[in-house]
């Protein structure tokens, strides 16, 4: 355990034990450093860890204070449908997705930022600038790995969270899901076993099903993240070719896997010959101001493939993602020039896909440069109809709307209303469990 983790554990125990009560000020950074014989930087790291967990809050020029919290709901472990590998069998999923596509419902089921929070003006300006200054390059074929300027910007983003990435291993894709699909196609063959979380994003399940792979479930516990002990047990019993994991704010639970657990799961996967495919699409959405480190940061075995996207930061419609390939980069450069998502369009005309890849690669490169080095502003909850409807729906069920994970909605018992005169002008819809579980038992 690192020094800052040890200090964070001690402070956490004091908060849970009532020694430090809600509203009370933590010892100053200098006091913590002096009392525990550590540097001020280590003390700051410990406080930031507690802030990410929602236990303390920083006040300008005043220090850190214990947050006022209500008792959390029991963190029940997700139920795994089968204990042995099996094919993804979820016939109801497509019907659910068709229902979720309705436009007459308030969309609480999508992990997308509110349109008002997107940098629309900056994107429009960047696109116009790209067409004016680099007209020929914008309409020409893009390099197989994507534009060099965009790949450099991506490496700089990872440098902000102390993660070293070589621009030569960055491959630009048509969104994060294509990156995950490319990784699975390269690593696996039909019938291979892939480890996935339960619950997980339904797009991962669809990709696994399309490749005719078998899945093995590992629980992701609300507020705790991936169950590393269970993961190690599963890997001991069953040969697993790859593990597709979302350690930074799992979709749909929002759980953040602690750094210590990240190290443990990487050691376990490397020991059993399982390649880790990391979906880090939500990593930028931390509210505390310090981005959680991806698995790639802790990887000492060259055993992690990291996938990401601009969908949660710039615009969901851009469909510009990437993967950090490491030793597998050369295997992806050729396939990435013809993404699976391009096939339907190519039956009519191929230029829209090429145009999107070249135009938006250059646009994203120019937009990425001025990004803030802390958490994305898009992560903050908006005051629009989505939030009001969510508050209304949870209030009707006797719960209070709140949040202790950056991408999760936490429902907690409530004794008094938090919002007054809130109405839902349209029906609301959330993603049902059938879309996020691996196997439907008949």
TrEMBL record:
Pfam families: Aminotran_1_2 (PF00155), GntR (PF00392). Residues 1-69 form the HTH gntR-type domain. Keywords: DNA-binding, Pyridoxal phosphate, Transcription, Transcription regulation. PROSITE patterns: HTH_GNTR (PS50949). SMART domains: HTH_GNTR. GO terms for molecular function: DNA binding; DNA-binding transcription factor activity; pyridoxal phosphate binding. CDD domains: AAT_like (cd00609), WHTH_GntR (cd07377). Transmembrane segments: none annotated. In the C-terminal section; belongs to the class-I pyridoxal-phosphate-dependent aminotransferase family. This is Transcriptional regulator. It comes from Xanthomonas arboricola pv. pruni str. MAFF 311562. The lineage of its organism: Bacteria, Pseudomonadati, Pseudomonadota, Gammaproteobacteria, Lysobacterales.
């Amino acid at each position: 355990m690192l020094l800052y983790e040890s200090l964070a554990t001690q402070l956490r125990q004091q908060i849970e034990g009532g020694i430090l009560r809600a509203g009370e000020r933590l010892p100053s950074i200098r006091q913590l450093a002096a009392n525990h014989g550590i540097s001020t930087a280590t003390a700051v790291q410990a406080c930031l860890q507690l802030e990410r967990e929602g236990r303390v809050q920083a006040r300008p020029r005043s220090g850190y204070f214990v947050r006022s919290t209500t008792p959390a709901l029991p963190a029940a472990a997700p139920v795994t449908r089968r204990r042995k590998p099996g094919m993804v069998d979820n016939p109801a999923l497509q019907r659910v997705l068709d229902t979720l596509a309705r436009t007459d419902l308030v969309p609480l089921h999508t992990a997308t930022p509110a349109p008002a929070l997107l940098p629309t003006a900056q994107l429009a300006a960047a696109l116009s600038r790209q067409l004016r200054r680099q007209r020929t390059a914008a309409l020409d074929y893009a390099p197989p790995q994507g534009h060099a300027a965009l790949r450099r910007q991506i490496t700089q983003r990872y440098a902000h969270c102390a993660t070293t990435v070589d621009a030569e291993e960055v491959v630009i894709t048509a969104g994060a899901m294509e990156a995950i699909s490319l990784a699975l196609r390269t690593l696996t063959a039909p019938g291979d076993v892939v480890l996935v979380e339960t619950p997980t994003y339904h797009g991962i399940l669809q990709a696994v099903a399309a490749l005719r792979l078998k899945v093995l479930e590992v629980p992701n516990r609300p507020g705790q993240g991936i169950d590393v002990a269970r993961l190690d047990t599963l890997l001991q019993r069953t040969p697993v070719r790859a593990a597709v994991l979302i350690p930074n704010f799992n979709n749909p639970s929002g759980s953040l896997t602690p750094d210590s657990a990240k190290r443990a799961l990487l050691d376990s996967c490397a020991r059993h010959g399982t390649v880790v495919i990391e979906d880090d699409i939500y990593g930028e959405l931390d509210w505390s101001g310090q981005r959680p480190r991806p698995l790639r940061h802790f990887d000492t075995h060259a055993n992690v493939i990291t996938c990401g996207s601009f969908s949660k930061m710039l615009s969901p419609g851009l469909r510009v993602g990437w993967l950090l390939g490491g030793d597998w980069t050369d295997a992806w450069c050729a396939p990435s020039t013809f993404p699976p998502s391009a096939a339907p369009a190519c039956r009519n005309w191929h230029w829209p896909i090429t145009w999107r890849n070249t135009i938006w690669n250059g646009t994203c490169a120019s937009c990425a440069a001025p990004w803030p080095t802390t958490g994305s502003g898009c992560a903050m909850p908006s005051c629009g109809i989505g939030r009001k409807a969510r508050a209304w729906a949870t209030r009707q069920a006797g719960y209070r709307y709140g949040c202790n994970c950056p991408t999760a909605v936490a429902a907690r018992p409530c004794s008094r209303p938090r919002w007054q005169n809130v109405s839902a002008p349209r029906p609301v819809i959330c993603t049902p469990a059938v879309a996020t579980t691996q196997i439907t038992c008949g």
